[in-house]
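Dear Dr. H.,

I hope your travels went smoothly. While you were away I took the liberty of generating a structure for the chain from your last submission, since the lab meeting agenda had it listed for discussion. I wanted you to have the full record in hand beforehand rather than looking at slides cold. The sequence, exactly as received, is reproduced here:
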Amino acid sequence: MRFLVLAAALVCSFQVWATTSPEALYMPKPVYPEGMSNLRGHARISLNLHNDGSVSDVKVLNATHPAFAEAAINAAKLWRFKPWTPSADMPAIIDANNDMIFAPQNDITIPFQKPVTAVVSQTCRALNDEVAQWRHDQPSRPLSAMRSFALVHAYLVLPVLSGSIEYPASLSATDDFDNVLPEIVRKCRSQPKGRFIDHLPETVRVRL
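The corresponding predicted structure, in token form, is as follows:
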């Protein structure tokens, strides 16, 4: 097996002005830059967290290489947090910093990180179109075999092969995902401006 790399160990302890940190719903790891499998590094970013769960103004404060800086920004722009009601402890906009550590590691899921991130970040409108096309072209096949759903399912199982996760834990996440597929389709149909990731179970989101 060729040597793969992982953008490892995000330090998720946000340093914020508020006394309570927002709850993360989706924090995809940065994609390790191509051609840098033998390099370790880090990138420190700043960003604003909004009470609707979105992020903005993602900037690199420092990085050991421009490619790590770019990877960090691209990942952080996709982060989403649980919405909150503004208060004295949790204002509507929170300034935050985060350190991303890049370290070589043997991980079988690396080649799939980018396509899976693209799939779960797509809008419900795009997913609705895919579901409609799938049902038209493959009326006798289950939704679980549709590309977007099959890709996420496979990604949840892959860590078992590399030994980075035990089979029971992987099985639990894949069962949760498969069981919620009809609900995802219903919610996306009624909320086309939403995103696929917003309707995934917590047990699935934490593994993406």
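Two observations you may find useful: The CA atoms of residues 17 and 92 lie 12 Å apart. The longest helix spans residues 167-190.

With kind regards,
E. W.
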